[in-house]
From TrEMBL:
Keywords: Hydrolase, Metal-binding. GO terms for molecular function: hydrolase activity; metal ion binding. The keyword Coiled coil does not apply. It comes from the Bacteria. This is Peptidase M24. Pfam families: Peptidase_M24.
Amino acid sequence: MAAGRWERVTAALAPGQALVLVPGPAWRYVAGWSPLPDERPAFLWLSGEGRAAALPALAREAAEAAWPGMTVFSYADGASPAPAVQAAWEAVGRPQRVALDEGCGWLQLRLLEDALPGGFEAGPASAVLGPLRLVKDAAELAALQQAQTINDAAMAAAFAQLAPDRTERELAALIREAYRAGGADGEAFILVAAGAHSALPHHEPEDTPLGSGPVLLDIGCWKDGYASDMTRMAYLAPVGEVPADFRAVAEAVEAALVAGLARLRPGLLAGEADAAVRAVISGRGYGPYFTHRTGHGIGVQVHEPPSLAPGELLPLPAGTVFSVEPGIYLPGRFGVRLEEVVVLEDAGPRLLSRLSRSLHVVAV
């Protein structure tokens, strides 16, 4: 369990309340490790009176190694998990109020209801964990920076391999290899969109040659349980000349991103950050073609709170990490998106990426 996180989580619980998590990002955030999410039920219980886990026997050894001092109750395949669930509940004080992981499925919920005598009152785990996960601690910031440093190198490697006859899928494979060489724990996602595909915000790589024209690269990897994310643009241009209409859109997107960064300060509402970016794009006549929110939080998930979307009233605290990623997408023609992930500090945003946002032009 991350140093100090257990104390912060338990301090956020109401008297007599327990946090109940299932395998996934919330469990990984609290404990630093999570069992493989599969059909075998598993629960992590945390309260002011203790911590315990109920999980399949095949995960017991890994759990005890990951959590020294954790009380672990296990069950064998073919046996009912109910006794282990009830034993874990008893080990944390038999709470009747629980903050339940929103990832808990229907079958897991029925198991809890059947295993715990007298039932329980449930609320969302995000009410407890949300404020904690929103503000990153020093270890989280270090992991996020390491993931982004690897991401920068992978993007630079991709730029070096741009060629008209290379396909989107082939370029994605080269990025994947750069992640392995850079020490990433794995890819989070790799989006490569060439030509008119760049007008599709989440286009996945196909066997389409890059050809001549724009290439949108939106990529991210995992390192020590934390994700990276960034978007950059390239242009494969005959004799190195980029069309004026593309440059106009690219300049509008860059101006919007710069305006958004300039507006960011602790206490700014998430919706106000979105509005600062959106105003620039609308002012240049491209408002209808900015079709998504300005940004999202990043941490143990690629997308997590905060959401920088129109009307969002959440004040952004110092220590929050999120993306700023304006885009303009002209259907059937091309799209441009630029993305930075920032740490919001008292003096303003600090960029995790050190890679230039300038359009990478390749003469073909």
